[in-house]
Amino acid sequence: MTTDASHPPVRWAVLGTGAIARAFAEDLRLLPDAALVAVGSRDLERGKAFLDAFGGRGKVHQRVEDLARDDDVDVVYVATPHSRHKADCIACLEGGRAVLCEKPFAVDADEARAIAEAARRAGKFCMEAMWMRFHPLITTVRDLVQSGAIGRVRLLTADFGYPTSYDPQSRFFNPALGGGALLDRGVYPLSLAQLLLGSPSDVVGRAAIGTSGVDELETALLTYPTGAQAVLTSSLRSRLRNEAQIIGTEGSIRIAEPFFAPHHVSWTRHSEPVGPAPAAKSGPGGWKSRLRRSPLVRRVVNDVARPLLRTLKRDTKTFAEHVPGGGYQFEAAEVMRRLRAGDLESPIMTLDDTIAVLETVDALRKSWRTSG
Ligand SMILES: NC(=O)c1ccc[n+]([C@@H]2O[C@H](COP(=O)([O-])OP(=O)(O)OC[C@H]3O[C@@H](n4cnc5c(N)ncnc54)[C@H](OP(=O)(O)O)[C@@H]3O)[C@@H](O)[C@H]2O)c1
Questions:
Q1: Pairing of strands 126-129, 264-269
Q2: Three-class SS of residue 123?
Q3: Quick one: CA dihedral 366, 367, 370, 371, positive or negative?
Q4: Which of 18, 91, 155, 169 is the most core-located residue (most Cβ within 10 A)?
Q5: How many CB atoms sit inside 10 A of residue 356's CB?
Q6: Per-residue pLDDT for the chain (372 aa), expressed as one digit of tens each?
Q7: Domains detected in the chain
Q8: Ligand 1 within 6 A of 63 CB?
Q9: In the β-sheet with 215-223, what is the strand arrangement from edge to edge?
Q10: Which long-range contacts (CB under 8 A, 24 or more apart) does 81-84 make?
Q11: What separation in Å is there between the alpha carbon of 83 and the centre of ligand 1?
């Protein structure tokens, strides 16, 4: 972890005291140059308990406007439900705080653009907390793809789904809180595809809408100007494989479950082009060439021997990584590096990339509406 304890600590506030706020605050303790100095909670006692639990010393603010004006805070980690992100982020930015906002950054691209504009107006750092992009093995995958290690990418598949107990009031199933699989989980496959393939030129999606009115299962088929495709699925109800595969012209990469915070990645480079053996020349010849022309022998060679040889000759390399904590420390460390450098964005998760992902989300929702 490249953080720098020789500097004064970066002073963090956490807005919201829910599940992810706790996981993030726990990982913040792994960074010696980070300090938890404030919490935003609608409930004073809950806020105090949160500070106590995570070794923070400082204030509890019950109103986001007060947190935003707290000059003892350098950066606010926004961990409220998605439907609150726009208002919470803009309040913090206008109050003079840098912002790291949980995924999905907003519920649609218009909201995301409004936050980005507020950040630019205020001259404050702002980033989506798409922690996957800062995971060391995802960095390895990005570097492999960008260096041409699998040739040109032709297909990306990724899915993210775990059964979630049904509660129509919860942020997962409640439309008013931005519920649905696409916003909660689908943004991970989409952000991976955006990282590796850029923006799609065509977007088609289908969704199964549940009784509370949110998408419980959705699949996207994205097409890129290069001709590459991505097939991405997310679910609130089913356990999916939670893997990703990137298939290129010269190799492939498999990111094992959970692909958004992987422990294991394998890269395979094909050692020869895939295809049938060249046909044997016709005409008379000895028994060897007659044998090579035999349909049965050719089928055995093409369907069994050559694939087997390719498998044996395959150049496969695996990368394994067991990171301490939950893996949220990498995004926090990036925020601190950027703040110290005086940067307003991270090149790894730019605001434009975040907006582009939400534009795809919008296009998918439009596609659901126009499907028969
Ligand atoms: N990066 C990840 O791995 C990850 C994982 C899970 C969730 N997330 C994201 O993080 C955000 C929060 O998710 P979560 O699972 O932590 O949710 P959660 O457990 O419901 O917590 C959200 C917190 O926000 C505060 N809050 C403020 N206004 C609220 C409102 N109107 N309704 C409910 N809570 C409100 C609450 O804290 P107070 O009561 O103290 O005010 C609440 O505890 C979501 O956008 C989600 O997508 C990210």
A1: unpaired
A2: coil
A3: negative
A4: 91
A5: 19
A6: 545 667 789 999 999 999 999 999 999 999 999 999 999 999 999 999 999 999 878 999 999 999 999 999 999 999 999 999 999 999 999 999 999 999 999 999 999 999 999 999 999 999 999 999 999 999 999 999 999 999 999 999 999 999 999 999 999 999 999 999 999 999 999 999 999 999 999 999 999 999 999 999 999 999 999 999 999 999 999 999 999 999 999 999 999 999 999 999 999 998 655 556 566 555 556 777 777 778 888 888 778 777 776 666 668 999 998 889 999 999 999 999 999 999 999 999 999 999 999 999 999 999 999 876
A7: 10-133+326-344 (3.40.50.720), 136-271+314-322 (3.30.360.10)
A8: no
A9: 202-209, 215-223, 229-235, 153-161, 244-248, 251-255, 264-269, 315-320
A10: 81/171, 81/177, 81/178, 82/106, 82/107, 82/171, 82/177, 82/178, 82/183, 82/184, 83/107, 83/176, 83/177, 83/178
A11: 10
Rg (CA), the chain: 24
Asked if residue 184 has its Cβ within 6 Å of ligand 1, the reply is yes
Structure tokens at 368: 């659901």
Instruction: Provide the pLDDT for residue 313.
Output: 62
Of how many residues is the chain composed? 372
Q: Can you give the pLDDT at residue 304?
A: 79
324: CB partners within 8 A, 6+ apart: 30
Residue of minimum CA distance from atom 4 in ligand 1: 20
On the question of a cis peptide bond just before residue 81, with omega within 30 degrees of 0, the verdict is: no
User: Which tokens in the block code for residue 194?
Assistant: 């955006």
Is 103 part of the annotated catalytic residue set?
A: yes
- Cα–ligand 1 centroid distance for 305 (angstroms): 55
- Alpha-carbon gap, residue 357 to 220, rounded angstroms: 12
Burial annotation 281-312 (CB, 10 A radius, 16+ → b, else e): eeeeeeeeeeeeeeeeebeeeeeeebeeeeee
C-alpha closest to that of 230 among 219, 214, 215: 219
Ligand 1 mean position to 13 CA, how many Å? 15
CA nearest to 252, candidates 264, 273, 266:
266
Burial class (CB in 10 A: 0-12, 13-18, 19+), 254: buried
Element (H, E) at 99: strand 98-102
